[in-house]
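Researcher: Next entry in the queue.
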Amino acid sequence: MIPELIYKIIYLVFYVGAAIIKSPYAHKAKKMKIKFSRGNVKEYSLAAIMGILLMLPPLIYIFSSWINRFNLIFPDWLRIIGTIGFIGAIVFYGWTHITLKTNWFPVLEIKEKQQLITSGPYKRIRHPMYTSTLFWAVFQGLVLPNSLIIIAGMLGFIIFYSGRVGDEEKLMLKQFGKKYQDYMKKTGRIFPKLKK
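Model: Structure for this entry, 196 residues:
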């Protein structure tokens, strides 16, 4: 049986890794001139809800016993699958940031030198960062088996995705027009489009 501490350490290492990957791109993006921004109350509220529901319960689980009454008993094989899936989600998350470079922003914005990225994970999926976040939410609940972590993570993803993806696509259509329309025909939103 793998000690609980090992799962907690693995989770924290990759959690911190995700922040390190994103940090330089977020820093550079802040310096770019904004052409259009949807940084309104809705945007910031969605980001806050997502952050709180996806990230706070795992940290409470790791550093306290406050939510232990919601713990589940999973066999090691399931937790190992969850750990591999979680690591995969973080690696995929990193790949999206590396591919986007400075074309990523925490709120819906168009910068003056904005580019439409269609390479890497964006070749077949329009919003692979949402894909990585969905997998993050699913697999973290297997690494840290707690029903509150599972429910809160999935709820955070659903609220964020449903509240934002439509606005994001409207903004991209406004900026890139037919180029984005053509891109939409070839790609799926968060999973690759099935070929007919």
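Model: The CA atoms of residues 50 and 143 lie 19 Å apart.
Researcher: Noted, moving on.
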